[in-house]
Amino acid sequence: MIFYHVDVFSSKILSGNGLTVIFHEEDMSKDYMQAIAQEFKQFETIFLRQIEEKRFRARIFTVEEELDFAGHPILGAMAVIHEKLFAEERNITAVFELNNKSLQGESVKKEGYFQATMNQGTPAFLGTVEGESVNTFLQALNLTTDYLHPSLPMEVVSTGLPYLIVPLTSGLEKARISVGDFEEQLGKVQAKFVYLFDVDRMEGRTWDNGGASEDVATGSAAGPTGAYLYKWNIFNATDDITINQGGFVGRPSKIKVFADQSTGDIKVSGDVKIIAKGQLLI
To answer: Taking the domains of the chain in order of start, what are their residue ranges?
Structure first.
């Protein structure tokens, strides 16, 4: 099996969000894929099996679990498909068949890197958090109402994975997950993960639900955050949005979000730098 190591949401080496992309021809069990992902120890690993010329079955794993969808693995995979299979073409599109949906990606070859885009589809707004639940989440995140944006709600938004968007005006550097049952708390509001977002700085943070590992740049959160910002008129629907992330872990990244003007679908874009290629001898 051939694998690539790429940095997503950066055009420079050793920046952005690292990812392993693995090509395989035969079916593999979920447990086997999980073990390989644990071996690489990236925040996420994506497995690709080509089923048509530009259509791929894709499965995404963290070191802990399989995800039905994640953002930066799709963008990184899109660039690797371009490099490995269609290197002579300047622009390509491909379709990814995920566990619960299919989505289309695009890649444009730049000077020394790729610019990849994915269509995350129509956003779903799953409800706001109100009353005492606001304080419960803030306490779990080591924050108080002093840091919360005064006119924007906490809201669960999904473009594939449901995120609890927590809008802040300050305090992002103080935030951390400080309780052991945070995943259970999120489940009560139909969220899978949390995304803290400083509206003034246009900067976000998120972690695994145990708080042990901070993600560098989160495409699956950028889509819901962009949809949230459009909904609450922080940006016009015709505006491009740039989200900053990764500065707190020394891997500054930029994620571009924009809305398709004909469909309303949310698209997420980022630069991808390929830095390594190898072979799994298993």
So the answer is: 2-120+270-279, 124-264
| CA 183 and chain centroid, separation | 18
CA dihedral 65, 71, 73, 74 (to 10 degrees): 130
For 124-264, give the CATH class: alpha beta
Contact 66/60 with Cβ under 8 angstroms?
yes
SS3 content of the chain, % helix, strand, coil (to 5): 20, 40, 40
Q: Residue 176 has what DSSP assignment? A: -
- Tell me, yes or no, if 111 is annotated catalytic: no
- pTM here is 0.93
Q: Which of 25, 26, 39, 44 is catalytic?
A: 44
Of 63, 89, 95, nearest in space to 77 by CA? 95
Tens of pLDDT along 55-106?
999 999 999 999 999 999 999 999 999 999 999 999 999 999 999 999 999 9
CA 96/CA 251 separation, integer angstroms:
27
Q: Residue 193: CA atoms inside 13 Å, Cβ hemisphere, count?
A: 27
**What letter represents residue 80's amino acid?**
V
Q: Which residues are CB-contacts of 212 (< 8 A; sequence separation ≥ 6)?
A: none
CATH architecture of 2-120+270-279: Roll (3.10)
CA distances to 62, 98, 151, 262 from 102, rounded to whole Å, are: 20, 6, 36, 19
Same fold, 2-120+270-279 and 124-264: yes
Dihedral sign for Cα 227, 233, 234, 239, please.
Answer: positive
